[in-house]
Automatic annotation (TrEMBL):
Family: Belongs to the FGGY kinase family.
Gene Ontology MF term list: D-xylulokinase activity; erythritol kinase activity
Organism lineage string: Bacteria, Bacillati, Actinomycetota, Actinomycetes, Kitasatosporales
Protein name: Xylulokinase/erythritol kinase
Species whose genome carries this gene: Streptomyces luteogriseus
Top EC class for this record: transferase
EC number(s) on file: 2.7.1.17, 2.7.1.27
Amino acid sequence: MYVGIDVGTSMVKAAAFDATGRELAVASRPVELSLHGGVVEQDMEEVYGAVVAVLGEVTGRVPEPVELAGLTGQGDGVWLVDGEGRPVRPAASWMDGRAHGLVDRWLADGTFETVFRRTGSAMFPGCPGPLLAWLDRHEPKALDAAKAALYCKDMVFHRLTGAGPATDVSDASMPFLDPRTRTYDNRVVELLGLAHRRGLLAPVSDPVATAEARGEGLPSGTRIANGPYDLPACALGAGVTSPGDGLLIVGTCLASLVATTELDLSGEPAGLYISTDRPGHWLRAMPAMVGTAALDWVLSTTGVRHDEVDGLLAGTPPGAHGVRVLPYFAPSGERAPFVEPRLRAELTGVSLESTRGDLVRATCEGIGYAARHCLEAAGLTGSLAVCGGGTRSSAWMRLLADVLGRPLRVVEGEVGARGAVLAAAERYGVGLDAPAWTKPTAVVEPDPGRAAFYTKGYAEHLDRLGQARDRART
């Protein structure tokens, strides 16, 4: 039995697999996000407790011994811990917006672009650079008390194993890692005013760190590998490793990834290059803030249940009777395929005749247009896989295929946990059949007529977006 652990933003999961990649059991537990005034935080003890609980549940349901475990989780944010791995303060989430003023300043004075040209990382308010700089200005005592500024999965690995603080090249890619040398760029640390906090950055394990469990959640002695974080883990779990092939993760974050062997740091600074376990191979990532959280907000506001979405999409025509949604609902604005910290969502074309179905379809279409924008910017030329919670809606998958104008290789199940296991197996030299583990569950073809309609709609979306970005800057 192989166990994958995926420490998500709102849900912690553990999945057990047999040697062929078949899911044997899945356990999950929700975790809370604290949102107030643009500040988005999480209780680290709650998150870690959820990890231990789901591991205990999933291993208790499958009697086979655990061969090894792979760990992945949400990226970015700042998870400050002391020497024992205990929280110094609540974790600042990747969704946090408190550092938008610093990002605005760095956009204006050229620091933002300089960092991108050196690392391939377009900073946003919820990534470690701005958050650490904000904490250094406003909560220096918290940094003084911390041993390390970790990423989410690193905190969990530290606690599960007792191993020293460590991260991997994928998490470290935003924003301090030089993608060519796969080490921290100390000049970037200096540019962000954090040279005196350099010691908080966890050592980068290349390849990923390994250790044995201490007996919390997993049997004592179980081998664990730490990393990569959820975006590259999903790429592994979906079989996206050949240059030009892409992955769209329809989750809380709408992440678009394209495998590449070319490092191009020109063009508009946006997204990031995620270093992978293979030197010279990267994922060109456009992890947009927009995602299922936008649809969840619309569903909650309109009183629509999740099980009603497919019926509403089927009963509402393309174009949603003129209702349009720019789905940028995150408190920290947008980070891909452009950075606009003050961008906000817009809803237009609504009248007394508009229905809940119109609002739901317009939101799904808006998210689809955002995905197309990201995939084009990331350089998609090959096949496209899709995974995440959004794949549970077959109607939304058909809509996405139409909006994107290309077939979708749908990969269902716990794709991040699956990728974490594949990464762990590679690290430990355990031979698993990756093609069998990553076989798609369905292929959704676009309808030519609807695809042509949405090509025009996409052009209109880009025009509205340009106007909204202009307003956000004034």
